[in-house]
Specification:
217 residues, alpha/beta, Rossmann fold, seven-stranded mixed beta sheet, 24% strand
Length: 217
């Protein structure tokens, strides 16, 4: 699919989501898709190979979380191919990001993508989330297709600032996952996401620590 058609699909989808993309971000998002395509031939980073499908299922699905982000310091836990971290970092160029993944193969791709796209505010960290101890906690932890919510909050709670939150992009079954949240975390918002050019239910669960609840349990 030629770049102008991909660009038009991206622009229309972002407008439908209510996400205003900087001009430079639009160009870099398309460049990111092409880079992902090339690496996919050898590294098998994502199951989606067609650029037209990638716009909806990767870029727009990631950008749908942009209105829910708070603060300026973010981490994408289990970043994989850089989703949702790279699209969100491009949408919020004034923010700082860490892309954390336990796979050396995926981190090699992330390092290359960060360099080629000129993402000066993005750092790639190879490691397990349980062992990662940042010098400064994060305003917001973002995950996509990472783990069940109960497991996720247990693994990321040490990364959050006192007033921080978790934004978890989820599919069908998120309501059941919310029933098994551990003490000390509570749901702030569950938003159904209408992601253009995608099928199936998509949700963003926004959760935040509740110290008082943890003390009572």
């Amino acid at each position: 699919m030629p770049d102008p058609e991909l660009r038009a699909r991206l622009d229309a989808g972002a407008a439908q989501l209510g996400v205003a993309l900087p001009e430079e971000a639009q160009e870099k998002l398309i460049a990111y898709l092409h880079l992902l395509q090339r690496w996919n031939r050898v590294y098998n980073l994502t199951a989606v190979r067609d650029p037209e499908q990638m716009v909806g299922r990767h870029l727009l699905d990631s950008l749908a979380a942009a209105p829910l982000l708070q603060g300026s310091r973010f981490i994408d836990v289990g970043s994989g191919a850089g989703l949702p971290g790279i699209p969100l970092a491009l949408a919020r160029p004034e923010s700082s990001w860490v892309l954390l993944d336990s796979s050396a193969k995926r981190c090699r791709f992330l390092i290359q993508a960060v360099a080629e796209l000129g993402l000066t505010g993005v750092e790639v960290v190879h490691g397990r989330v349980e062992r990662y101890r940042p010098a400064t906690p994060f305003d917001c932890v973002v995950t996509r297709a990472f783990a069940a919510l109960g497991e996720t909050v247990g693994r990321i709670r040490h990364l959050l600032a006192e007033q921080g939150c978790l934004v978890a992009l989820k599919g069908r079954g998120v309501e059941r996952e919310l029933e098994s949240l551990p003490p000390g975390f509570a749901l702030r918002e569950l938003r159904r996401l209408e992601v253009p050019a995608t099928k199936g239910a998509r949700y963003a669960a926004v959760l935040a620590p509740c110290p008082d609840q943890a003390r009572r349990s």
